[in-house]
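Q: How do we represent a protein-ligand complex in a form that can be generated token by token?
A: Start from the inputs.
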Amino acid sequence: MIKILIDVHCHANLYLDIDKVINEAKNVGVEKIIAVAMSSISQRRVLEIADQYKEIYAALGVHPEEVKMNRNIENQLESIIDLIKTKKENICAIGEIGLDHYFVKDKELYPLQKTIFDKMLLLAQGLELPVNLHTKGAEKIIFDTLPSYKIPNVNIHWYSGPEIFLKKGIDRGYFFSITPALSYSPPVKKTVLTVDIEHLLLESDGPVKYTRKVGTPAMIRDVLNTISKLKEIPVIVLENQILDNTRKIFPKIFEN
Ligand SMILES: [Zn+2]
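Then emit the structure tokens for the protein with zinc ion bound:
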């Protein structure tokens, strides 16, 4: 049986040459890519590329840094929510959503960030969709908030926070997606070593740069190999398990 890899978190709408990115991914067995939205503009673009490319699946949501990047986000919120509701059949998750108290330094923006996050969680609960979460520097509030909602499954993306919440996430059965930062980041390595293989996923977070190289879905092949070495588990076993995990959390990307 041919194994496939899936990039569960990629800002695919931001690539200049998306055909090239998809081809390079397919050359190393990355067959599916979840494109996560961030802003009001990217919701439309993500839907467009998911329509255009069979390898791409859409996740819609408002990124926590939007409060800093986009002065109009508060006014745009209701129309984004309406769009997500209208397109619920076309999306596999709500994301990228969450809180950020690390890159967003202005504390006055935190209440709005939290309001948006709560609305996104409510949406995920109502639409019965999994969430793709950004937790940077706000792990405690996020972990305190999540039990108030009934969300089918939680994907914590690029976790690099305190160990106490990592352990809590593991106890609650959350899934952790690992980026190419694994090659140099001690907290990411810690995440890989702590989380059991039944809860690991792969992601590029592209086009984020890793040691000056633009991140792409093709890079998750190396991430898999590095996890295999770190955890001393054969690549083939890991590949199978991660595919099963991805099927469990994002069932809609396996429907067609
Ligand atoms: Zn991201």
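Residues 5-254 form a domain with the TIM Barrel fold (CATH 3.20.20.140). The chain has a mean pLDDT of 96.
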